[in-house]
Amino acid sequence: MIRDISRTVVDRYLRVVRFPVDAVLKRSPSERAEAASLKVDRADAAARDVAATALGDDKLKADVERRRAATEERERAARLRQVAEEHSTRAEADASEAREKAASIRKEATKTAERGKQQAKQSEKRTKEAAAEKAAQRKAEAAKKASQAKASSESRTKREKLRQLEAEEAAVAKKEEALNAADETKRLQKQAARVKEERKAVR
Known about the structure:
Structural class: mainly alpha
Number of helices: 3
Helix content: over 70%
Order of helices and strands: HHH
Number of strands: 0
Shape: rod-shaped
Low-confidence stretches: none
Distance between the termini: 221 Å
Mean pLDDT: 77
């Protein structure tokens, strides 16, 4: 009976002592508050252990062991939460870095593709300009050859026409010469006939 009373007194005393501390920690929950709460729990268990030893109270001793086990479990859970949060933070940082790298790669790929398009357009433009220039050169050469061929043809035509005219002129000259010779022959014949007539008249 006395031990039950002593145990109750110890429990109530410790509850009263830690009440303001628990009240403050509950109003500002955080990792630091949780760590402080665990320290308070360990101090509470230590105080109960001292009282249990002094009173020789096995029930209080067993309660101390339960409280210590519960505190250790809370500490282990807190450590696991901290590790999980660190892993989550690192994972988020890695994911953020991966997203940034992916965005950078996409941006660079877009720039590369745009440069490729521009280079392709410029190459196509240069190819078309070169083809147009060659076509213009071929056209100019064809026109020059056609002009030369035309000039050569006209020259040959003129030479042929000149030879034809010269041939016709020579033919006309020959005809005129023949006609002149025929006229001279007729004149001489007439003159010879007149002389002959005159001779006859003299006889």
